[in-house]
Amino acid sequence: MEKTFLMVKPDGVQRNLIGEIVSRFEKKGFQLVGGKLMVIPAELAQEHYGEHKERPFFGELVDFITSGPVFAMVWEGENVIATARQMMGATNPKDAAPGTIRGDFAATVGKNIIHGSDSPESAEREIGLFFKEEEVVAYSKLI
Ligand code: CMP
Questions:
Q1: What is the Cα 64 distance to its own chain's centre?
Q2: φ, ψ (nearest 5 deg) of residue 127
Q3: What residues contact residue 22 under an 8 Å CB cut-off, 6+ apart?
Q4: Catalytic annotation on 48?
Q5: pLDDT tens-digit profile of 89-105?
Q6: Which amino acid positions bind ATP, per UniProt (predicted)?
């Protein structure tokens, strides 16, 4: 079963949106199999966002993502990587459709509430950066 890495960013945590966001993915039918509230160390933030290190906003991005607690999560389900991206909406909230998380709750590209892996390779890499193997649980097959 496919897994993805999702993270409520510091703006989402401060605005008390963890419950709303978790609820959307639960109601969709996905399963939360890992979760932790944490302040990301600078080195981890730089590694996580490594593909953006040449971008002019890289410093701002790392400062922001380390500025307060985030809620890091692993979600499981069929086609969860692409479906979660659809549910999040476009990276820039000005392009995000109403009904999506960013369309409903975010206004600027820097503070866009949520991060989600964009491919199976990113999902595997990002889950590995944030979670130890034993921190990702398996649900009982009986339920
Ligand atoms: P995310 O999906 O977490 O991946 C990279 C992040 O970079 C992205 O969401 C945006 O929040 C952020 N980002 C993209 N463009 C800009 C920008 N021009 N200024 C600041 N942050 C940006």
A1: 14
A2: -60, -45
A3: 32, 73
A4: no
A5: 999 999 999 999 999 99
A6: 9, 57, 85, 91, 102, 112
The model scores a pTM over 0.90: yes
Point out the ligand 1 atom lying closest to the alpha carbon of residue 65: 3
What is the mean pLDDT of the segment spanning 105-130?
Answer: 97
DSSP letter (8 states) at residue 15:
T
The string of DSSP letters for 73-93 reads EEEESTTHHHHHHHHH--SSG
Q: What is the pLDDT of residue 140?
A: 72
- The answer to whether the beta carbons of residues 9 and 114 sit under 8 Å apart is yes
Q: Whose CA is nearest to atom 20 of ligand 1?
A: 110
Q: Which residues line ligand 1 (CB under 6 A)?
A: 52, 57, 60-61, 91, 109-110, 112, 115
Give distance in angstroms: CA of 58 to centre of ligand 1.
8
